[in-house]
Write a structure and sequence with these properties.
The complex is a heterodimer of chains A (113) and B (112). Chain A has 113 residues and is mainly beta. Chain A contains no helices and eleven strands. Chain A has strands spanning 4-6, 11-14, 19-25, 32-38, 45-51, 54-58, 61-66, 71-76, 85-92, 102-103, 107-112. Chain B has strands at 4-7, 10-13, 19-25, 31-38, 42-51, 54-57, 64-66, 76-78, 87-96, 100-103, 107-111. In chain B, a hairpin with a 3-residue loop joins strand 9 (87-96) and strand 10. The chains are: A mainly beta (113), B mainly beta (112). Chains A and B meet through strand 4, strand 5 and strand 9 of A and strand 5, strand 9 and strand 10 of B.
């Protein structure tokens, strides 16, 4: 079983829809929870990160972490065609060492105009 | 700033050949990493460095070597290429090593 599980999709929704992307994990030591966005044939870029549990909002994006359920989510409101990309969740912990990020498989998202 | 640069963008190798993937960053980041990205597998850490002269193995280090003689450069060497090393390789650098990685554009490698 992978440490971080993410539904690979693909996920296709109409413009303006609310999108929910999710990851589950097994290692309770994880403290940092991240969402990276990767456009086709590009490197990933950090979209949001959360330390420990709770919610974080940035414009149309909201990240949620539920450590008790070992479950994280990314919500995209008023989705736009420019949001079409692969979204990767990632996790790390100080106890595991610097640079030791563990990534999910990525979910490919398409927003249809 | 150019950020993280990688060369070459594409490469085709025959089994058994060796080559070096180049990575450079101009942000004065201490931390650098190499990942490979395969369909259905996400990003997997190959090797990483926490500063010049210091490197360590990640999740999938076999068949790869690294060195870090300067802060800016972190080359990845394939010693004897195998078809299983066909992948997209990303270099990343960071000054917040627990969550924020800056990725390069990637090198697409095919081994035949």
């Amino acid at each position: 079983q992978k440490e971080v599980e993410q539904d690979p999709g693909p996920l296709s929704v109409p413009e303006g829809a609310i999108v929910s992307l999710n990851c589950t994990y097994s290692n309770s030591a994880f403290q940092y929870f991240m969402w990276y966005r990767q456009y086709s044939r590009k490197g990933p870029e950090l979209l949001m990160y959360t330390y420990s549990s709770g919610n974080k909002e940035d414009g149309r994006f909201t990240a949620q972490v539920d450590k008790s359920s070992k479950y994280i989510s990314l919500f995209i409101r008023d989705s736009q065609p420019s949001d079409s990309a692969t979204y990767l969740c990632a996790m790390s912990a100080r106890a595991l060492g610097a640079q030791k990020l563990v990534f999910g498989q990525g979910t490919r998202l398409t927003i249809n105009p | 700033n150019a950020g993280v640069t990688q060369t070459p963008k594409f490469q085709v190798l025959k089994t058994g050949q060796s080559m070096t993937l180049q990575c450079a960053q101009d942000m004065n980041h201490e931390y650098m990493s190499w990942y490979r990205q395969d369909p259905g597998m996400g990003l997997r850490l190959i090797h990483y460095s926490v500063g010049a002269g210091i490197t360590d193995q990640g999740e999938v280090p076999n068949g790869y070597n690294v060195s870090r003689s300067t802060t800016e450069d972190f080359p990845l060497r394939l010693l004897s290429a195998a078809p299983s090393q066909t992948s997209v390789y990303f270099c990343a650098s960071s000054f917040r090593p627990y969550y924020e990685q800056y990725f390069g554009p990637g090198t697409r490698l095919t081994v035949t």
